[in-house]
User: Which sequence fits this backbone?
């Protein structure tokens, strides 16, 4: 059995996957209503350009590659139909491009002007786009979907006229000519650091739009089956394009033709500029393009969790040892959700009187005795907190009993239920862990879905690490029962969380500032989670007006944090408190929750309101006074421990 097993979540980077695996692992997000802004029909048929924004591992590359002609060709083979039939069904054909960041950076410097590099890059971009157009034509010719007479008598002569490619009699010859001219540019990029010479093409150079728009116009006029088709340029990792390179493409966005459109993938804040080659104009959302955010912060009731289940199922089914035993439901393997009551019982069993002992320092023991609930430590803790809020012991006990006995019509029982079930159960668990000086565990499918923070790649990595730890620690249980112990899941979550936190410092230019900011903000959120009065449970978001920040370094650092999904902006402006003005709200990427021992949910309510002065402190200072941020109404934590975090019992 072990010989038929490998980690089903290893090796899933969409950029590195071959075409067969793209198709094998594909899960259609439109079936789960993940995008309110677009429909599947829009990919090939929307008359506007579409910009797809999201952080690392949100699925942009997988999404763009799926609509490209190599993957669609595989689909046609699987369905035993021609490529032309699937193109006609889609009413369009997609061409995927991803230019490596290192190559993009090679189009600059060496004493040559930006104007010259703009011409070289434009020439190169037109060539690589034009080549893919001809590649599709060649595929259609091979399957005889285009009349051979049209190709030889009309298409090839007109292409050669447009391209100034002489003496070519076949599409394959034209592709070879493209390859030679692309290689000519790439050889120059390798030589220019040594010779410092301008690029001079052996033949002609190509201006912007000459091939990217020129060839589609030719095809639409010559090939009858192309007249109602759209040619879609799928351009990935746009954030890597240099400032002037984005101006080149932005200009194309501004002047796209009716049947040639762009679908661009980039990280949030991926636009370096909205300018065009003509500096008196710029591109504008809603006019030149519309935006789709892949990284919207999702909630439990969306189709996102079902989408994750389908993604996991595809990978689990690829492993014979799991498929043969029908271990293909990730919810079953990880457990659907946490059992907080059981977690609390296991935590308290070694010292069942510890909660009582802590509160007995402040309250009469006879009152506390009335509120004991050894069968559920969370209820016992909630009872003691009610007592600390001024509710009498008798009233608290009645409310708990009415809740437990499901007394109909009891307002006391209903209020107790709301406090426990709707408001505070998870917060109580964090407080209980603090009392017992142990860490909250992060496990179950539901928790991993939240921790992924809307980033599919994070969910996959959490699963990969869980399977890896289970494989090393208890393979027999995994393969015999199809479950992974919660301890293994928790270890995977903590390791991944710490790894992501440690890698923040690697971010170019602003990594140090962002890293310090995240540590400080995370500790502030942790402080709120230790508030024994539970005034603002599960606080883990902050409000700030980024555009009002005058210090460009602070503003750019915050934008870089968004671009790298270290923090995530909520979709709509909100108030951080009842009396506050509207501001952008941000949350830490939920994957950091295990590192700071904070909630993976966002409850709303209280948010930390930051301004430029407080942002500067959080980004530059190693040690901050948490009391400056933990003031709640007119109550301020009175005690702090040596770790500069609030004393759990300072306010009771």
Assistant:
């Amino acid at each position: 059995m072990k010989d038929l097993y490998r980690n089903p979540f290893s090796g899933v980077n969409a950029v590195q996957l071959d075409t067969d695996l793209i198709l094998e692992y594909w899960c259609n997000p439109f079936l789960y209503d993940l995008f309110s802004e677009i429909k599947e029909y829009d990919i090939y048929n929307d008359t506007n350009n579409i910009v797809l924004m999201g952080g690392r591992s949100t699925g942009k590359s997988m999404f763009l590659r799926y609509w490209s002609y190599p993957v669609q060709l595989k689909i046609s083979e699987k369905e035993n139909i021609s490529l032309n039939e699937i193109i006609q069904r889609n009413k369009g054909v997609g061409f995927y491009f991803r230019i490596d960041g290192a190559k993009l950076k090679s189009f600059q410097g060496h004493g040559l002007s930006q104007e010259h590099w703009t011409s070289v890059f434009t020439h190169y971009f037109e060539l690589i786009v034009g080549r893919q157009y001809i590649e599709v034509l060649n595929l259609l010719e091979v399957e005889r979907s285009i009349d051979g007479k049209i190709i030889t008598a009309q298409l090839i002569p007109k292409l050669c006229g447009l391209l100034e490619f002489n003496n070519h009699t076949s599409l394959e010859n034209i592709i070879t000519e493209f390859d030679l001219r692309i290689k000519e540019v790439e050889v120059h990029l390798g030589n220019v650091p040594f010779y410092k010479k301008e690029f001079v093409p052996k033949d002609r150079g190509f201006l912007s739009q000459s091939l990217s728009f020129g060839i589609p116009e030719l095809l639409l006029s010559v090939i009858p089956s192309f007249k109602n088709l759209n040619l879609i340029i799928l351009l990935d990792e746009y954030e890597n394009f240099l400032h002037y390179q984005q101006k080149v493409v932005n200009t194309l966005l501004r002047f796209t033709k009716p049947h040639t459109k762009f679908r661009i993938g980039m990280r949030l804040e991926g636009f370096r500029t909205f300018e065009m080659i003509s500096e008196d104009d710029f591109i504008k959302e809603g006019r030149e393009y519309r935006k789709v955010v892949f990284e919207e912060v999702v909630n439990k009731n969306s189709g996102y969790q079902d989408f994750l289940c389908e993604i996991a199922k595809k990978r689990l089914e690829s492993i014979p040892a799991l498929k043969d035993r029908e271990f293909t439901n990730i919810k079953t393997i990880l457990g659907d959700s946490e059992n907080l009551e059981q977690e609390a019982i296991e935590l308290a069993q070694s010292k069942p009187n510890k909660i009582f002992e802590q509160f007995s320092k402040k309250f009469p023991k006879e009152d506390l005795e009335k509120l004991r609930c050894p069968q559920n430590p969370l209820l016992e803790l909630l009872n003691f907190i009610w007592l600390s809020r001024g509710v009498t012991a008798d009233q608290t006990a009645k409310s708990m009993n009415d809740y437990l006995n499901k007394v109909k019509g009891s307002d006391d029982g209903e209020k107790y239920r709301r406090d426990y079930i709707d408001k505070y159960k998870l917060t109580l668990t964090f407080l209980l862990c603090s009392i017992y000086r142990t860490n909250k565990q992060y496990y179950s499918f539901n928790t991993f879905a939240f921790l992924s923070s809307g980033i599919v790649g994070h969910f996959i990595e959490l699963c990969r690490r869980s399977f890896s730890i289970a494989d090393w620690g208890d393979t027999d249980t995994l393969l015999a029962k199809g479950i992974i112990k919660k301890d293994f899941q928790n270890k995977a979550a903590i390791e991944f969380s710490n790894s992501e936190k440690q890698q923040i410092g690697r971010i170019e230019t602003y990594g140090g500032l962002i890293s310090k900011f995240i540590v400080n903000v995370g500790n502030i959120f942790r402080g709120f989670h230790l508030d024994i009065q539970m005034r603002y449970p599960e606080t883990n978001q902050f409000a700030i007006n980024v555009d009002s920040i005058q210090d460009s370094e602070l503003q750019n650092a915050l934008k870089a944090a968004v671009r790298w999904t270290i923090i995530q902006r909520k979709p709509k402006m909100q108030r951080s408190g009842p009396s506050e003005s509207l501001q952008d709200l941000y949350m830490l990427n939920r994957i950091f929750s295990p590192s700071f021992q904070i909630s993976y949910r966002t409850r709303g309510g209280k948010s930390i309101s930051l301004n430029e002065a407080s942002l500067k402190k959080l980004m530059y200072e190693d040690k901050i006074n948490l009391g400056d941020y933990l003031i709640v109404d007119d109550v301020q934590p009175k005690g702090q421990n040596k770790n500069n975090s609030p004393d759990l019992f300072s306010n009771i």
